[in-house]
Write a structure and sequence with these properties.
It contains nine helices and twelve strands. The chain is an alpha/beta fold and 292 residues long. It has a single domain, classed as TIM Barrel, CATH 3.20.20.150. Helix 7 runs parallel beside helix 8 and helix 8 runs parallel beside helix 9. It starts with 19 loop residues before the first strand and ends in a 7-residue tail after the last helix.
């Protein structure tokens, strides 16, 4: 393990373990600036705040709230590695905002540093593991921060994958000192799509590396993709995902939790109500012997 990033527990980030927050999206900027809601943590997609008026909004929000910077375009699974210019911009944003948490995805989304429209899966092999570990180490060095890497929602598996997903994530954390996001909806979606057992997947997740939970809504695919679940982030968290979240809290323990909602964005009150459910679950998990 690279000792520069070797930390215990949640990796030295601020103690937000019992905090539930929401993703801050553009429709709610004005509310946060004029009548800030009562919420413990906000997440933003970093690429939306690199330039322009949104950057000033983020700076104002950061004065009142801890912020989680969640990137979507580093393409850590690309053989080319992160685009140096984009990485430099993200590093500058990180230094200025001083976020509580910084994260990215186990995915790739660029060819020759030309961004694609999606977060794409990668084969889980030793070669891929070496590439991702190299790219994570490069990003952490540039940012001066530990990254949390999010487990993916996937709709296919590569025939030549040789490493189970949780084992891949465990080894990635061991090699680089990075942390992990336990995206509970992604676990449920992937397990449903591939016939995996969610409890078994969760049992393989390296608890000590987890620095954050994500919760979101999903939907059922139609037409040729019927039978698949899609990670759409366009509705409330489903009941079985809440149940799996409680199971994660029982096994891993409390961690800061974000409600993500990126399409058909609802009222701010709806988002805050979802966060309140997560906050109650976190509170129960902090009480020894409480029912889960």
């Amino acid at each position: 393990m690279d000792q520069a990033w070797a930390t215990s527990g949640t990796g030295g980030e601020p103690d937000l373990c019992d905090c539930a927050g929401i993703g801050l999206r553009f429709p709610h900027h004005e509310a946060f600036l004029t009548a800030p809601p009562t919420v413990a943590l906000v997440e933003v997609h970093s690429e939306n705040y690199l330039v322009g008026p949104a950057r000033a909004v983020l700076e104002a929000v950061r004065a009142d709230f801890p912020v989680s910077l969640h990137s979507v375009a580093l393409s850590l699974g690309s053989a080319d590695g992160p685009d140096p210019r984009h990485l430099a911009r993200l590093a500058a944003l990180t230094r200025e905002i001083e976020p509580a948490l910084v994260s990215e995805h186990l995915a790739w989304g660029a060819i020759d540093h030309a961004a694609l429209a999606d977060l794409l899966p990668l084969p889980l092999t030793e070669e891929s593991l070496g590439i991702v570990a190299r790219n994570v180490a490069r990003a952490q060095e540039a940012m001066g921060r530990r990254l949390l890497i999010e487990n993916p929602a996937t709709y296919l598996q590569f025939a030549h994958s040789t490493i189970p997903e949780t084992a891949f994530l465990t080894e990635l954390a061991a090699r680089t000192g990075c942390g992990l996001i336990c995206d509970v909806n992604n676990i449920f979606v992937s397990c449903t799509n591939h016939g995996w057992e969610p409890a078994a997947y969760l049992a393989g997740f390296p608890a000590a590396a987890v620095g954050e939970y994500h919760l979101a809504g999903h939907s059922a695919a139609a037409d040729d993709a019927a039978g698949l679940l899609l990670d759409t982030h366009d509705r409330s968290v489903a009941a079985p995902v809440w149940a799996l979240y409680c199971a994660a809290l029982a096994r891993i323990g409390p961690r800061p939790t974000i409600i993500e909602w990126d399409a058909a964005i609802p009222s701010l009150d709806t988002l805050l109500a979802e966060a309140a459910i997560a906050r109650r679950a976190l509170a129960d998990a902090c009480i020894p012997g409480s029912p889960r």
